[in-house]
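Notes taken during the Thursday session

The instructor put the following on the board and asked us to keep it in front of us for the whole hour. The protein is Heptaprenylglyceryl phosphate synthase. We were told not to look anything up and to reason only from what is written here. First, the residues (227 in total):
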Amino acid sequence: MYNRKAWKHVFKLDPAKSLTDEELDQVCQSGTDAIIVGGTDNITLEGVIDLLNHIRRYPIPCVLEVSTADAITPGFDFYGIPVVLNSQEKKWLLDAQHQAIKDYGQLINWSEILTEGYVILNPEAKAYQVTHCKLPDRADVIAYAQMAEQMFRLPILYLEYSGTYGDPELVREVKQILNNTQLVYGGGITTLAQAEQMAQFADTIVVGNSLYENFDEAIATVNVKKD
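Then, after some discussion, the predicted structure tokens were revealed:
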């Protein structure tokens, strides 16, 4: 099994968006530590399987971040289960997960499950709106981080700015209070300089949207691993 705590750089591919076969080959051969497949809306089983079939040509770990139970398929190394800590609806903290386990619990290999404590910090992001989040202040974020590690023992805390570049100082503060929970940062990384800045503090950085906006610059962010 892969050591996901050693992952420094990860690409995230959205099944609802498209890259050419050549670009997908580049992503898989880029030197990134892993690939996440996931998105917020219009996620179909067909789109997930298409990406999985392409990624599986290469010896790279891949994670399905589950946003709808209808698009779950075998073949991934891990399955990320988001728990949105700053959602105002219990559905996104507990109910959706409970229903999935009720329906499919007998089929789950629990060693492949990664529960991700999400804090979504961009009010303009689709994920923020879909999950009806409340924008946390610094003290809220620190408290969520403490809850994730000390109360819920979550393996991952994911600071998600989705579509905008976040606050490196806040990422640094959160990292200082985490010992065992893996700190993942995602959002707005479009250049190697931004990747280097966030990688100083987060255990793992995720580059996603920029693959569909400025592919060459996004690919270059992998060079953060050489620093």
